Amino acid sequence: MSWKFDDGTPIYLQIAERIREQIASGEISPGGKVPTVREIAELAGVNPNTVQRALAELEASALVAAERGNGGRFVSDNPDLLAKLKHDMARTATGDFLAKMRKLGFEKAKTVGYLNEYKEES
Amino acid sequence: MSWKFDDGTPIYLQIAERIREQIASGEISPGGKVPTVREIAELAGVNPNTVQRALAELEASALVAAERGNGGRFVSDNPDLLAKLKHDMARTATGDFLAKMRKLGFEKAKTVGYLNEYKEES
DNA sequence: ACTAATGTATTATTGCCATAATACAATAAT
DNA sequence: ATTATTGTATTATGGCAATAATACATTAGT
Q1: Both A67 and A19 in a single domain?
Q2: What is the CATH number of the domain that holds B71?
Q3: Which terminus of chain B, N or C, has less C-beta within 10 A?
Q4: pTM (2 decimals)?
């Protein structure tokens, strides 16, 4: 995992988003263990408090739950919740992308065309 | 224009990005006049200093230039620069979108398919 | 010359992000 | 019971974003 951060957006939100992605993609399995606050802080090179704040975001939406003591945090194993997460994130990303392209003057058909012809490493 | 802002990202960056979009799309014509600092501040409901900071970003990339006095600010009329702006913004948006979808578990082909079937207002 | 409109600069204040350094709370393992 | 591991809470500090209130600089219009 890379753990580089953009400037201009709070790190705790970026961390929350990345973990959300890992959950949505299944990179962290349903019911699986989330790395500890201190581990993530170490990996990401940030203060534990910052990580905790990120994880509090995920708990607020019931995506993870804490088990104190030697437990750590665990991803929800609710299939509906996880499916909804993935669906919502994909849908949001797509809607945002289309909106952005529209602002740039690309109507949907043009955006689709652009995406089709898109090649990495121009 | 709506002028709502996301939390978590500095407003001055969001303002700069929106004006960049307006320039890239031609909503503000090449060589055209950019609203004044005080006008934008009024419309967006923010402090003039915040707007100035945003516009300083655009000047740093030569997209706009200031004419003091009764002038105001004007968009560059350099066709190459404007074409490059639009190209770069579209490319960045597309690359970011693909990266995001990939993190969610959608390879490019799936992303293209998803976009094709995407309907607003689900 | 004067005025109005615009960009630019300065200073102070408030609030949130992030860090730092601890301490406390709960539970599994021994 | 003790210990180690983990989550949680507290307090202090520094930095940047944003606001606020002015003041100054430049130029067009009159």
Answers
A1: yes
A2: 1.10.10.10
A3: C
A4: 0.93
Nucleotides of D strand lying within 7 Å of any protein CB atom: 4-11, 16-22, 25-29
Q: Which residues contact A20 (CB under 8 A, 6 or more apart)?
A: A58, A63, A85, A89
Q: Which of B90, B100, B120 is nearest residue A93 as measured by Cβ atoms?
A: B100
E strand or H helix that includes residue B19: helix B11-25
Same domain membership, residue B70 and residue B25: yes
Number of domains in chain A: 2
Task: Output the six-digit token pair for B106.
Answer: 């959608």
The mean of the pLDDT values for chain B is: 95
Residue A122 belongs to a domain: no
pLDDT > 90? residue A71: no
Residue closest to D7 C1′ by Cα: A68
DSSP B9: S
Cβ-Cβ contacts under 8 Å for A54 (sequence gap 6 or more): A11, A12, A13, A15, A16, A19
Would the Cβ of A47 be found within 7 angstroms of any atom in strand D?
no
Domain around B24: 11-77
User: What is the dihedral sign for C-alpha A119, A1, A80, A52?
Assistant: negative
pLDDT for residue A122: 62
Q: Is the domain of A15 the same as that of A66?
A: yes
